[in-house]
Amino acid sequence: MNYRITVLPGDGVGPEVMAEGMKVLEAVAKKFGHTFKLEYELIGAVAIDKTDFALPEETLKMCKKSDAVMLAAVGDPRYDDPKLPVHPEDGLLALRKGLGLFANIRPVKVFDELVNASTLKAEVLKGTDFIFVRELTGGVYFAKPKKEWLTTKGRKATDSMTYSEQEIERIVRVGFELARSRKKRLVSVDKANVLKSSRLWRQVAIEVSKDYPDVALSHVLVDACAMQLIRTPTAFDVIVTENLFGDILTDESAQLAGSMGMLPSASLAGIPQSGKPTFGLFEPIHGSAPSIAGKDIANPIATILTVAMMLRYSLALEKEAASVEKAVEVVLKQGYRTDDIMADGNTRVGTRQMGDLIAAEV
Ligand SMILES: NC(=O)c1ccc[n+]([C@@H]2O[C@H](COP(=O)([O-])OP(=O)(O)OC[C@H]3O[C@@H](n4cnc5c(N)ncnc54)[C@H](O)[C@@H]3O)[C@@H](O)[C@H]2O)c1
Ligand SMILES: CC(C)[C@H](C(=O)O)[C@@H](O)C(=O)O
Ligand SMILES: [Mg+2]
């Protein structure tokens, strides 16, 4: 089959890890007889440099015409100054919003081979395999108003957390559907002991649960969740939460998997259904990691696993997705590691070599 993919390498380590992701996609094309037509576009700091916009119109248009979109990372210290009118991250937020991608699926799987790569104890980590469902187009990220102003007593700024019941319902449903296809346990994370928006979140989650009597719903406060994630990560199956909580808790969870360079994600416009394509943007959860950019040391596995998620969710190519995931596992079993996940007895490889090794196993 022929597929059209928009590729957004972005900034920092983005182009390096994306090159390895595309290498692996090419191996999939060869093995399974597909054609992936790749259209490279700008986003983030590289887009601001060339066009003054973090998300040029051309990029959004191309994404809308594609079967799926791959993005590596945005962000550049040159644009960190809060006084600047535009930041690279604005491009990613505008893309998620512009494509209606409200459901961000972030699987957290600890490979047996990597239980010694984390700062946490191997016996705590072994068997960890859960999925975060992060709401992606609401909450404080898209607050209205979102502004800074001057008062007689000094400066003030606001971004308030607002959620409508419709926004909560659609993301909670994604959580229930995923839980139904797994161990049938859904944890809804909120801060209902303090926040009004969380109280509504909890009420709606309970209302939606009536449609899923086969799934056990429980509620955990976000601070307690942060603690439980590192105490007993194996207790979780599917976790659904709002945008900012999900952002924070998934970086924490990356450390369970050994590194930020290990976690993939899918940002979808609907509930994923087995065998049916759901349009999406596929992005590792990590950022542009500027301090390691250009050194051939970034871990490309998050991006390669993200390619697998794209094959599964947007192209409905399950066999192909599984072969990429298997290839990652095989190479980890052989003991090859990038810097971030090195342990005693492993063989250190660079970004490109890791990509070569995985592509060869597809
Ligand atoms: N989705 C995205 O595009 C995205 C996500 C997070 C942060 N950012 C942006 O990236 C920039 C840097 O942010 P940050 O430092 O907070 O987060 P980061 O994820 O870029 O880096 C956090 C830590 O993880 C390491 N790391 C990240 N990716 C890695 C990889 N593939 N292999 C090995 N190590 C890796 C980094 O070296 C650093 O130590 C900022 O501009 C931020 O806004 C973008
Ligand atoms: C870069 C930033 C806008 C983004 C987010 O906060 O969603 C990132 O941290 C992520 O997790 O994808
Ligand atoms: Mg983040």
How would you describe what is shown here?
With 362 residues, this protein is an alpha/beta fold. It folds into two domains: 1-102 and 260-362, Isopropylmalate Dehydrogenase (3-Layer(aba) Sandwich); 129-255, Isopropylmalate Dehydrogenase (3-Layer(aba) Sandwich), CATH 3.40.718. The chain is built from twelve helices and 14 strands. The strands form three sheets. It has a ten-stranded mixed beta sheet, with helices on both faces. A two-stranded antiparallel ribbon has the order 6-7. Helix 1 packs across helix 10. The longest helix has 19 residues, at 14-32. The protein is globular, with a radius of gyration of 20 Å. The two termini are 18 Å apart. The model has no long low-confidence stretch (mean pLDDT 98). Keywords: Amino-acid biosynthesis, Branched-chain amino acid biosynthesis, Cytoplasm, Leucine biosynthesis, Magnesium, Manganese, Metal-binding, NAD, Oxidoreductase. Residues 4-358 form the Isopropylmalate dehydrogenase-like domain. Its EC number is 1.1.1.85.
